[in-house]
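Hi everyone, sorry if this is the wrong subforum. Our group has a chain we'd like a structural model of before ordering constructs, and none of us has done structure prediction before. Sequence below.
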Amino acid sequence: MSLFANLAQDLIASDPRRSAWVSSRMPEPLAEKLGRRKALHLFREASTNVPAYRAFLDARGVDAAKITDFAAFQALPLIDKENYLVPHRTRPADLCVGGRLGAYHAVSRSSGYSGEPLYLPRNERQETAAMRGLEMVWANFFGADRRSTLVLICFDLGMWIAGEMAADVSRELAKKHGSLTITTPGSDVDESIAVIRNLAHEYEQIVIVGYPPFLRQLIVAGEQQGVAWSELDVFLLPSGEGYSERWRSHMLERLGSAGSLTNVVGAFGSSEGHMIGLETPLSILIRRLAAEDAGLRRDLFGDERDGVSLVQHSPMGLLVEIIDEEIVITTSGAAPLTRYNTHDRAVSISFEHVMSTLAAHGYDSRRLQEAGLDPSHVWRMPFLHAFGRQDCVSVDGANIFVEGVAPALLEPGMEGIHNWKLAVRERDDGRLRFVVLVEHGKEVPLEPSAGEDARRRAHYHRAFVDQLLRCNPDFKSAHKNNPDCLDPEVLLYRFGEGPFKGDSARAKQQHVFVGDL
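Answer:
Right subforum, don't worry. Here is the predicted structure as tokens:
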């Protein structure tokens, strides 16, 4: 990398407020240029020193020596979980720089639908990147570097990568900033409330990190047990899955912070433990405006879809490409990833396009400030508007994959099902519910009795749950901790109706439904 790039990285690393200052003023083309140089450097390191990646390139006839510019880099074959990580499930050292697992200080577990875990190592560089992201949010938006702050890490703990990594990097931040105290109650509502009851009075504010459904569950349970959230100055950092602006507004009202652009700020990352982007007050305000203005939403995002997240990201930290509307990342780490397809769907939008589109719809800088935006919170970084994945839904930290559900259709009594879809429904009170949509075949009676309907629904429900409990340990844990959210609601449809309208003309069926139910 160039001397200037190294100096820029050192500047960003040194102080979170200075980091935000640099990020908010660096021209987007320059940041992209530096990010591309870094990606080429990471490719050279991986193609030379990572056994699995060398083998991947050799098997596809790629001569690494010929990848000398970014155009050649963009022609490299994509890697993903199935073609790169899974084949080395029993030999994770092959994914590491140097081919030695013992060279790294931590290993976490990432599990999908199959129940067979992936063990992924972490190094200091990877954790430093995550720490910088958290620090920028906590310092610039939460003011946690200046006010005494109690932090609760409420992800599942143990081998799961989200909880362990969040706890580890938060402790490092606490060592750097004397204003932070880290606690790790995990996904235990009663333990989390006990921490708040016994310790909150010693601090000026509280930061709670966790999956969105758990955070809502915690806030509601706290209210029922007499916790006065509005008196505590609470900040939430939801991560692990998307959520709507209605959910954010619902939480802000319960916290006594209605309308705030800084009290609920989320992070967006990959299940392999890499932070991709952060919500900012600007992205939150844009999403809030777009939720009420279909024309603005269409002109900003290309259509009127309401995504699961709108974040900003630094091209200098992690290179993002959008290929066939899916996020492809190149990033360093103990197990570096070069052009890794996360299969998260998104569109990328430049900062300039966002601001010019806002202005064209009457949202100039003065009007944005009137809506509560602090000019110092405007970061000149590109945006990612994410829509989730086509092969799974995420609920309370559990990824529920299409492939993991499909075997249930082979069970006795499931013969009348013609098609099915997975979905997540948001209830009026902000709670989420995992939903399985079932389309009956033409031969199934169009007007079954109420008793027959209930019998089928109960049978389908049992088959889906039993299958997921067998194959998906993350679902099993989340289902035990939060059955109100994870126990699936089964909705029945006649052939070709509702979410299945028009599906008969598709060559390939879509088993994830995004929309209103």
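For your construct planning: DSSP finds 19 helices and 18 strands in the chain. The first strand starts at residue 106 and ends at 110.
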